[in-house]
Specification:
Layout lengths: L2 H4 L8 E8 L3 H10 L7 E10 L3 E9 L5 H10 L3 E7 L2 E8 L4 E3 L20 E7 L2 E5 L5 E3 H4 L6
Antiparallel strand pairs: 1-3, 1-4, 2-3, 4-5, 6-7, 7-8, 8-9
The structure holds zinc ion (ZN).
Length: 158
Amino acid sequence: MSPEQIMLIPKIENGFVLDHIPTGSGVKVLNLIRGHAELNESVISVGLHYTSRRLGRKDLIKIQSRELPQRFLQHLSLVVPGVTIKRVENYAVAQKIVLEPPELVDNLLSCPNPGCITNHERGVTTCFHLVRREPMKFRCNHCERRFALSELENRLKL
Ligand SMILES: [Zn+2]
């Protein structure tokens, strides 16, 4: 076993591993977990700055939870698009998915445009459409402005 492997955070019996998080984004994911009350009781292990063949360096987070809330997954796909989620059962990976942002982002974000009606009228929900993949752009349904993902990731409605 290489020294790198020995330093890995312990295996979990049941839960989820969020893998291939670009290094530096692990902290953003932790903040997101804190924002979702359903996960507040879950045991979380965090590994930062692992070497990765794909990313050079990566962060990794393990969540001991029976399930991950749908809204958390949608937010996660906006904070770290392309993150790999492994579901672990009895210490083995039972399922693996790569999480991509949704085509339709329904009431998950507030609009960065201060003049947008969604920031002024109560009860108006936001809706963004994915209009471009490389680089990723979303359009607000109400003010029709386009935003890069980096402009939206701190606008999450938790
Ligand atoms: Zn808008």
